[in-house]
Structures are given as C-alpha cells and as structure tokens.
Write a structure and sequence with these properties.
The chain is mainly alpha-helical and about 230 residues long. The protein has nine helices and three strands. β2 (about 55-65) and β3 (about 65-75) form a beta hairpin.
C-alpha cells in the first residue's frame, strides 16, 4: 500500500515529467503540506523508490541554468496503480476509532474541567485553522486556480471543519450545563493535579501555523485541466 506522500508524488508526476525540485515547489505552492507530511529529502527518496518499483522512469535532461536534471515520468503500470489507489481512497468513508475519536472514547481518564479545557483549546484552534483555510481558498478562487482537484480538496476540508466546530460548540455547551464548575478559576489545589501540564497545553504550539499556509499559497501553480 502506498503512503500519502508516495501517492501525491506519483500523481504530480502523472501530470507531466518533473524533476525533484519542481515537485517540491508544487507541493509548497498548492499548500499540500497541510494535508501530508513530507520533507525535501524524502521527495528524492520516494522518487527513487517509485522508480525501483517500475512506477516511474527517469532520464537526465539539460538545464540551461545549470547541470542536467534527473526528470521523472510515470509508466503505464504506475498510471494504473495510481488510478486504482485514488479510486479506492474515494470509495471508502473516513476511518473511525483513532486520533481525536480515540480521545473521546477515553474522556473518563480526565476530570470534567480538564475535558472542558482541552476541548476549548481544540475549538479555538479549529476556528483559527478554519479561518486560514477559508482565506487560502478565497485566494485560490481570486487567482483563478479553482480547478476540480483544488476545489474538491478545499471545499471538503472546510465542510468537515465547520461540522467539527459545530459539534464541539454544542458538546461544550452540554458539558458546561452538566458540570457547572468547569469554568471556575484555577486554585492552588490544581497545582497538584497530575494532568495540569496537559490541560494548560495550547494545541497551537504544536499545530502548523495557518499564517504560513497562506504565505505558501501566494504562489500557486494551477494543475492543467484534463
């Protein structure tokens, strides 16, 4: 099974022959790092791996600005594997029981006020990220880069974030009604709480900065229409 990064790189090469640095630029310009984790050195590792698996071929092509570059092209077999992988991803609903859902399934490990506090951080961070993604999508539309794949990616992500935010707001209202003391001020007693560090942690310190996403999206290379 291909990883998300492998699938993305194979798809970018399927658009047309590309060298590694060009793939790096497109990943940044299209804001794809917000949906997958991939480093610059990993791109070349993945390209070489896909070539060893006969999904890609490569050749050195002269570059007027410098030394010849290794340019990759998709093979017929690679194209078939890509189409199968994408179709399978689109066919399956999102999986449950991991990440945030796993945390919800274990709410009883925290005290009511801790639950309220970390979910409040989650809500505020989600609002922050949603605002950034909506601005990025507006930028795409303004620049005319709203091709089918970009539109699908952004509109789906925005719809999911809106749904998650609505659920969080409603759940926090219900939680506050059930446990009225969750908003009380912290006391010295809380200093002995083994979960204190967790409840004070703001997810924004570990999440990617949405402002950087907007900066990366200022230069967008549209995907050619089929």
């Amino acid at each position: 099974m291909m990883t998300d990064a492998e699938l993305t790189i194979l798809s970018l090469v399927a658009e047309g022959p590309r060298h590694g640095y060009e793939i790096q630029q497109i990943i940044d310009e299209r804001g794809l790092r917000e949906w997958l984790t991939i480093g610059f050195s990993s791109i070349y590792y993945i390209l070489n791996k896909l070539e060893r698996q006969n999904m890609l071929t490569s050749e050195l092509r002269p570059d007027g600005r410098g030394p010849a570059r290794k340019v990759y092209a998709i093979t017929e077999g690679g194209s078939g594997i890509l189409q199968t992988a994408v179709a399978e991803l689109l066919r399956q609903p999102r999986s449950l029981g991991s990440g945030f859902e796993l945390g919800l399934a274990n709410l009883n490990a925290l005290k009511p006020r801790q639950v309220y506090k970390v979910l409040t951080y989650h809500r505020d961070d989600l609002k922050h990220r949603l605002d950034a993604v909506e601005k990025a999508w507006e930028h795409h539309q303004h620049e005319g880069h709203n091709t089918d794949h970009i539109s699908a990616l952004y509109t789906h992500s925005i719809a999911l974030m809106h749904a998650d935010l609505e659920w969080l707001i409603n759940f926090l209202d219900e939680w506050r009604a059930k446990y009225p003391n969750v908003e009380r001020a912290e006391t010295r007693e809380d200093d002995t709480d083994p979960h204190k560090a967790l409840t004070r942690m703001n997810p924004r310190t570990v999440q990617s900065d949405p402002a950087k996403m907007i900066q990366r999206l200022k230069r967008i290379q549209s995907k050619p229409e089929e």
